[in-house]
Amino acid sequence: MAAQFLFKVVSSYALLVSATPITSSIAAAPPGASMAQPPIFAGSGCAGDTDASWSGGVDSLTLVYPVLSGKTGPGISISDSRHNCQFVFDIAYPDNYQYSVSSVSYAGAASLDAGGTATPSGLSYFSGGTPQITWSTTLTGPYNGGYSAVYTPSAADTVWSPCGGGDSLLDVNSVALANRNAQVAGSVTVSNATVSLQWRTC
Ligand SMILES: *[C@@H]1O[C@H](CO)[C@@H](O)[C@H](O)[C@H]1NC(C)=O
Q1: What is the whole-number distance in angstroms between the Cα of residue 64 and the centre of ligand 1?
Q2: Is 137 near ligand 1, meaning CB less than 6 Å away?
Q3: PANTHER family from the entry (predicted)?
Q4: HSE of 5 in the Cβ direction (CA atoms, 13 Å)?
Q5: What pTM does this model have?
Q6: How far apart are alpha carbons 195 and 149 in whole angstroms?
Q7: Residue minimizing CA distance to atom 12 of ligand 1
């Protein structure tokens, strides 16, 4: 199933990168745009089927990560310093529309002794397409509390889904990284991310 979707996305992407769509911006998802399959997710920071969830329609996706964290410090293994959780959204839409990520807001908490840093981050791309967008924030110890950040891609950085309709697989990967330092205790979480989508006609 996944391989079929991937093939479809790869072939429509290849066909359409050379086309120059005449575009006009619209705010809302078009009629007929829908989540074609329930989202899937995987990664060391998802920790099981029941530990990640999403809400929202095809304009805004809220991803919740109850166990996504990274830790570092005395006695903590290097593999605990970074965990990730990646969602794949199968979004179907009519052939005269395309969409892109317009902003990502993400939030969590960190506890860092002096000298420690942490980097909550993420990236998004369409399966089969190479351009991706990335976001990150660096937190510097001493730090103890919540954080929230918003990433808004510039027009040049914005990556649009292929025209031509069908399915697109939107991948969103979130990463909690406590920058490795065996002497300094630190931890960071990503508790949620809200991915806003914008739509336009091809
Ligand atoms: C996201 O997490 C932050 C901090 O943990 C919290 O304040 C906020 O309400 C959460 N937002 C959503 C949409 O769950």
Answers
A1: 9
A2: no
A3: PSEUDOURIDINE SYNTHASE RSUA_RLUA-LIKE DOMAIN-CONTAINING PROTEIN, PTHR38847
A4: 15
A5: 0.83
A6: 12
A7: 192
The β-bridge partners of 15 are none
Buried b (16+ CB within 10 A) or exposed e, 103-138: ebbbbbbbbbbeebbbbbbbbbbbbbbeeebebebe
Q: Tell which residue, 45, 198, 56, 38, has the closest CA to residue 121.
A: 45
The pLDDT confidence band at residue 22, using thresholds 50, 70 and 90, is very low
**If you take atom 14 of ligand 1, which residue's CA is the nearest one?**
192
Task: Summarize pLDDT for 99-146 with one digit per residue, the tens.
Answer: 999 999 999 999 999 999 999 999 999 998 778 999 999 999 999 999
DSSP-based helix, strand, coil % in the chain, nearest 5 = 10, 50, 40
Using a 6 Å cutoff on CB, does residue 108 contact ligand 1? yes
Query: What pLDDT digit, counting tens, does each position of 41-51 carry?
Result: 999 999 765 45
- The residue nearest atom 7 of ligand 1, judged by CA position, is 107
